[in-house]
Amino acid sequence: MYVGALLGEHADVGEIVAWCDTNPGRIDYYDAQAGGGLPGYSPGRLEEMVRERGVDVVIVTTPDLHHAEMVDRALRAGADAVVEKPLTTDAEGCRRIAAAVAETGRNVVMTFNYRYAPRNSSLREVIASGAIGEVTGVHFEWALDTVHGADYFRRWHRDKANSGGLLVHKSSHHFDLVNWWLGDVPARVYATGALRFYGDRAAAARGLGERPERGTGVTGDPFSLDLNADPRLRALYLDAEHHDGYRRDQDPFAPGVTIEDNMSLLVEYAGGATLTYSLNAHAPWEGYRVTVNGTRGRAELDVVERGHIDLGENGEVVLDPSATPDGAGTDDLRPQRDRLIVQRHWERAEEYPIPDGIGGHGGGDAILLKDVFRRDLRIGGDPLGRAAGHLDGVRAVAVGIAANRSLITRMPVAVGDLDLGVSLEDDENPTTHHVPAAP
Ligand SMILES: NC(=O)c1ccc[n+]([C@@H]2O[C@H](COP(=O)([O-])OP(=O)(O)OC[C@H]3O[C@@H](n4cnc5c(N)ncnc54)[C@H](O)[C@@H]3O)[C@@H](O)[C@H]2O)c1
Which residue ranges does the record assign to the Gfo/Idh/MocA-like oxidoreductase C-terminal domain (predicted)? Predict the structure, then answer.
């Protein structure tokens, strides 16, 4: 996404000057797209890269476990950082980034693309307008289907040490949305969850027999991903495997999965609202439902990203329907749609218009990229305060980190006890976290 932006729409404001990756095969793949000849560095030489190439900004898109180290080292080497979600996977990563920002005074941009999806921005607008009054609670359900959901169990994400589990890796998007919709910060979290569908033990308990170790070469099995079937996946992963041994097509039911696939949370917000949240990673359809209860009424956002999974003749499916909207098939009963309903006390329900989004993640990606690359032009003119910094990143992962602790202790966890290195209520960007008072 960032390479495409810098070679396309935003080429006039930014230039790719170097690559940094553990895998030379993937460097070569993107270097060829950029015309070839840009230098590639191993992560151990990040500082050298920043110095030699005069790097202004390092865009961090490594597996989550390395985000904190890369951001810290980039800032200390003299560059700013743009970092993919989640900010980091644990409290130590939060402390490391917070210290680097405090000690260098440099800037970290957190790319929360979901905020920019028009449907999510519209809900923020409704809440900020005061139409439903003061928010007392949010009910939020996210369903990942057996294609996109299963993909987390094939890749590096399947190991909790790499991703922090889906409560950090995936749900940090969702917790950021709630934090931002409410203009509030999480205070206490109780979580329950388990691996009930993917992984070898759950599969064996259901009587699932012998499985292939990897998807490539397998046909007619919807849980297998054949890297040869997609030229991009083949070039980026299969052809680059000999460099590091990383397999992108592991069987989701193979041993080694340490993340959960069913999760439920209760979150108390500092301002008094409650969030009930659930994430399921093996649903037959993909999308989410959010209900926001307020003192003057209620808002309900319903999003269907893929109503069902169409298995083609050759078993080919689209991995992430939100990233590539054209890949979602049609479904009469559960059509692909965004619907935002607002109903005030003593009134009929009304549909709140959602502007059309074009492109990945509900249209969020294109607008986000403008904020990343043309930030100075947009920030002042965005009353929704969509641009996010590292503090927003900490606020979002705080819920997942607390939830992961709660899964172990089976007790509620106070976010203040996590020692995240910052106070969540500190705010260097007041537009992001202050919703206007209800009329
Ligand atoms: N915002 C979104 O919607 C969204 C969508 C997809 C991915 N992401 C995020 O992007 C990041 C990358 O995900 P992905 O799916 O592209 O993963 P990926 O495995 O395809 O790519 C990760 C890359 O990092 C490289 N790498 C590994 N360790 C490294 C290190 N120490 N230093 C430098 N490079 C290293 C790998 O070789 C690989 O090229 C993740 O943090 C993920 O959460 C965000």
Answer: 124-415
